[in-house]
């Protein structure tokens, strides 16, 4: 099982969209990938949990978290091989860890926690709660957005992850994101040489 939670080695720049539900992560991941003519990694949990909801009318349970994490890393490893210099991830295992703790009394499977902390990314874009909350079959905490945002931010701080806060409308978020991506590309080119 552990192998299925491990990133495969790569020199690709990896950036994660990170934050509470309905804060524009997917929209940003898609737009940034289009801007840089590269790949983005969808959130595997959405597909997995939507199928579960359609089948059983049940939401996420603790037993779902490891299959979700394995599916997420499988997609990330697959799309890393297809990416052009940079990969945008709609989520990562650290986000899965946050949801596990927030929903299941502070609990997180130790194996999931291990890889949530060990897997590495160049930068996190922390998405703020200043966009409208949109209801769907899976979203369920509109009244706890501030608490959830604080939980996400505190997690990045606790594990000393490099992050940039994205606020404001879509154009502002994109402008901020692109500025930081350009810096990363330049640093990466200086480290590994142009390819």
Automatic annotation (TrEMBL):
Which ranges carry the NadR/Ttd14 AAA domain?
Answer: 14-173
GO molecular function: any one?
A: kinase activity
Q: Which UniProt keywords apply?
A: Kinase, Transferase
* One matching Pfam family: AAA_28
Looking up Gene3D superfamilies in the UniProt record yields: P-loop containing nucleotide triphosphate hydrolases
Q: What is this protein called?
A: Putative ATPase/kinase involved in NAD metabolism
Q: Which organism is it from?
A: Galbibacter orientalis DSM 19592
């Amino acid at each position: 099982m552990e192998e299925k939670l491990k990133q495969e080695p790569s020199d690709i720049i990896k950036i994660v969209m990170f934050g509470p539900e309905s804060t524009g992560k997917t929209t940003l991941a898609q737009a940034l990938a289009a801007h840089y003519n590269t790949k983005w990694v969808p959130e595997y949990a959405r597909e997995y949990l939507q199928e579960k909801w359609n089948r059983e009318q049940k939401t996420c349970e603790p037993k779902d978290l490891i299959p979700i994490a394995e599916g997420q890393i499988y997609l990330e490893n697959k799309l890393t091989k297809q990416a052009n210099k940079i990969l945008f991830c709609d989520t990562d295992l650290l986000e899965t860890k946050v949801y596990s703790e927030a929903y299941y009394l502070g609990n997180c499977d130790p194996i999931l926690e291990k890889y949530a902390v060990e897997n590495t990314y160049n930068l996190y874009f922390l998405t703020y709660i200043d966009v409208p909350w949109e209801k769907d079959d899976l979203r369920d905490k509109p009244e706890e957005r501030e608490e959830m945002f604080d939980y996400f931010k505190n997690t990045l701080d606790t594990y000393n992850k490099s992050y940039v806060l994205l606020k404001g409308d879509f154009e502002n978020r994109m402008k901020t994101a692109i500025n930081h991506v350009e810096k990363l590309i330049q640093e990466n080119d200086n480290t590994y040489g142009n390819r």
